[in-house]
Each structure stands twice: as C-alpha cells, then as structure tokens.
Amino acid sequence: MNQLTRLCLLASPLALAACNTAPAEEAPLAGDWVLSAGESQLSFITVKNGQVAEAHSFPGLSGSVSADGAAELSIDLASVATNVDIRNERMRDMLFDVVDFPAATVSVALDPAAFAGLKTGDSLVQPVVATLNVHGASVEVATDLAVIRLGESKVNVSTATPIIVSADSLGLAEGVEELRTIANLDSITGQVPVTFSLTFEQQPAQ
Questions:
Q1: Which parts of the chain fold into alpha helices (H)?
Q2: I need a labelling partner for 206 at 20 to 30 A (CA). Which of 18, 56, 87, 158 fits?
Q3: Interatomic CA distance for residues 121 and 151, integer angstroms
Q4: CB of 154 within 8 A of CB of 201?
Q5: Closest CA to 165 of 154, 156, 173, 157
C-alpha cells in the first residue's frame, strides 16, 4: 500500500467525524412565548416646569405571545416606581385610579413568519400597530419593534424609538392637572415618551 493510499484511508474517518459533530440546525421561532418579568422593563419620562425631566418605570409586567402571533402585555399600574413614595401614591390614586383601572394593556397581532427564520444573534426591525388600553380609553399606536434572538428559546423585543403617549388621548389630562396642582408646579407635560425592553421565553410544546 503506497503512502497516498494510506493517507486517504486515514482522512476518510476524520472527515466523517467532522460531519457528525457539525452544530444542529436551530429550531424556528415558533410556538407560545411568555414574558420573563425579571429580564424586562418599561420606562417613561415626564417633564415638569418645562425643563426638569424625570424617569419612571413599571416593574409589574406580564405578557405572552401565542403561536398565531397574538401578543399582549399587561402593565400593573399600581407598581409605578418614581423614586418618590408620595408621588407613587398620587399617581396610583389621582392619575391612574388603580382601584377602578388596575392595569393597562397593549395588544398587537404579529406575523410569526416574519420572525421564524431568526438565528441566535440575528435581529430585525418590524413595524407594527398596537392597541393601548388605559383608564378605559383605547388608542392605536404605530411603532417599530427591534427583535433579537438571544438563544434557542429566548428573544428580546424593544422599542426602536421611543413611543410618544398623549395624556389627552387616554383621558388622563384631568389627572395630570390634579398632580400639577397638588405638587404646586407650573406645568407637567402631557406628552410622555415610553420605552421598553421585553424578554420572552419559549414554552415547551404540549
């Protein structure tokens, strides 16, 4: 047996082993998904007296995305966090009226096919029109969602740009005015930019 033949015989099983250890194809983004609250956040900014901007958040989040693309986010309005206890209380009672309206919801119909082919590390920006329900009022909000696949069963969805929410359109203008009066402020802006970063985990197939 010549040297060339021996090299070919040795190379064959090595090539076969290399093929057998190639990474498996990732499963498509499909099925049902649930929000990971500990890895998610939703924030908004208010401006008082024309120049003082303050950041606030809602830690109480829950949500899901079903296999058909129906997505919903629920925001516990009583969880509002402004770093000032009395302001938290006033927002809960005077602005959101959490006794009668404990939660805000955001719902949107997604196209599952648009995300199915994402591999880990891949991202895309998807325009959507969502429905926001707060304080008994409902408005449509057009925005762009930035979606990135973090792993085999985890994705992150965030705002590509802040969403501007109007207190007037949601019937919250009167509550904003009450807050301004009791805090003895010259003004509180009625236009509020909102941002979020939401992480969802895929649920095991039933």
A1: 3-20, 85-90, 173-182
A2: 158
A3: 8
A4: yes
A5: 173
The reply to whether 122 falls in a domain is: yes
Beta pairing partners, 157 = 147, 198
* Token pair listed for 86: 């009395």
Question: Quick check: is 61 in a domain?
Answer: yes
Tokens of 53: 């901007």
Q: What is the pLDDT of residues 79-130, one digit of tens each?
A: 999 999 999 999 999 999 999 999 999 999 998 888 888 999 999 999 999 9
Place of tokens 């958040």: 57
27-43 tens-digit pLDDT: 667 779 999 999 999 99
75 vs 88: CA distance, rounded Å: 15
CATH number at residue 143: 2.40.128.110
Provide the number of structural domains found in the chain.
1
How many residues are present in the chain? 206
